[in-house]
Structure formats: C-alpha cells, structure tokens
Amino acid sequence: MFSLPIFCSRSSAFRKLSRKYPGITPPLITSISPMIPSLSSSGINAEYGGVMDVKKKYAYNIGTMFVDDFKECADGYDPLGPLGRRLRDANNAGFRSIEVAFPYNWSIEEWEKQLISYPLHLELINTPLGPNKEPGFASTEGGTERFLDGLQQGIRYCKALKCPRLHIMAGLAESGHDISFIENLQKASEMLESEGIIGLIEVISGGVIPGYFLDNFPKALELLQKIGRENIKLQFDSFHLNCLGYSTGDIIQLMNDNASLIGYVQVAQTPNRTEITSPGGVDHEKLFKHISASPKLSHLTIGLEF
Known about the structure:
Blueprint: H1 12-20, H2 41-48, H3 54-57, E1 58-61, H4 70-75, H5 83-92, E2 97-99, H6 108-115, E3 121-126, H7 144-161, E4 165-167, H8 178-193, E5 198-202, H9 217-227, E6 232-237, H10 238-243, H11 248-257, E7 262-267, H12 284-293, E8 302-304
Parallel strand pairs: 1-2, 1-8, 2-3, 3-4, 4-5, 5-6, 6-7, 7-8
Helix pairs in contact: 7-8, 8-9
C-alpha cells in the first residue's frame, strides 16, 4: 500500500453522497465516482452482479479517499489529516472496514479514543517509513536493527487497534539483498505469529517507488516460497500489477494460480490511482465478478486505495 498523489474533483460524487447523507458537509472525499451508489451491499450487487457486502468486504483507505480540503491534494497534504473527521466520513458513507498506510502520525491513545466512537475495523497498516522516508528495511543488508524497530512499532499498533494485517515494507534494491529479506521475514513471522497478525509483502511498481526491492511479481513469489511461513502472504494490488504490464486477464490468472498465498487485495485504476470505475487499464467489474464467484478468493478483504 503506497500511493501516488491524489487527484481531486468536485464531481457529481459529492452531490450523490450529500443526497444519500444529508448531514455531511463538503469537502469530503477525493476521487469518488459512479462507485458511490454501490456504498450499500445492494448497490454493489446491482453494479457488479456480485455478492459482496461492501460493509464487510471493502476497506476504505482513509488516507486517500477522505481528505479535509482540496488544497491538501494540490499542495501535498498530510496523509492522514484530522483523524476523527476521516473516521466519521468513512462511517457516514456506510463502511465498517478501513485501512491506512501509516497510522503513526497519531498516538495509539488517539486512535483508540477516536475509533471507540464508530463501528469501524482497521484491516491493514504498513510498517513505518525510515527517518529519511526510506520505504522500509526488510531487505536492507545490515539493517536488521532498523527493520526490527519498525516491525515492533507496527506490531504495537496492530495489537492495540486489533488490526489483523501488517504490510512489511521491503526497502530499496540498491541496499537490498535476498538473504537479508528472507531472514528478516522469517524473524517477523515468529513475532507476528505470537500476536495473531498476518504479515504481507507487496509488489510495488517503479513509477510509485523507484528502485523498490520488490518490483516484480515472479521475484515476490520466489522469495515468499523461500520464506516458507504460513503467516507471511501477498498483498495483491491491481494498480501495481497493471502498471507492470499485466492485463486484467493476467491479474485474474495470477490470483487463481496463487490464491493460497494471497492475504489481502487492493484496487485502484491506472495510470493515476483514480476510482475503479474510471477509464484505465483494469476492468474491475470483471475482476470483482471473478473474486466474488471464486471459492478460493471470495473471502478476501479488498482495500479501496484510490
């Protein structure tokens, strides 16, 4: 879970939301689209012909979907913003699951204070960035101490906030090494297992994080097999895979072939991480129908990271 800059618009999306929820006040949401009618389970069934209950199956990314004003988007906003407002907006939109990349701008105590007001479940967070915004240290040769520091912080947040999944950020290829990554993920597996947390690794395209260690799918599969732990799984992102050249058919085939290894799904439209119904490289209607119809995939939570 790592996002490009958000693209904002005062489209018909807010007007649809304001009719559905008269009490809300703008500005509320960025990059929302005709997906708005499907904020109820009946809507998602009508739009995609599936059986997914949006309140249980979908996690709204409160760092990308709810921002506090449109100026934030243009100027490079605080990726979290006032926490209570984000949670309120997700709740008002009918969601019961949320995700956020980096919860660390807020103390655990603040999260607990705000979450108690809403029936929202936190599904996913990332391990923290490094002091110089490094995208993790899991693969960094000689970086085990920094890796463990970040991992322990992530575990503390997951444990306190009852978050079942932690995306373990891999770091940069220039300082990365396969052996370091495998050994660090095996250590992480032991630490996470004692807390009942699933660790995730994600393929991230070079256009989002240039030089990221896990920048291609075959490499991620190979390393995952060498790690060999049941509680370390794939975070499967339609956006990154399409950026890497995989078509909708390819993405579906990858899901089928590796269903047992997938622990979480994220979606957004290419090339600018817009809403999933906007024009782009992925046919999310086809993808959603396949997920909902597949006994091996239908249980997966889907993060909306657009």
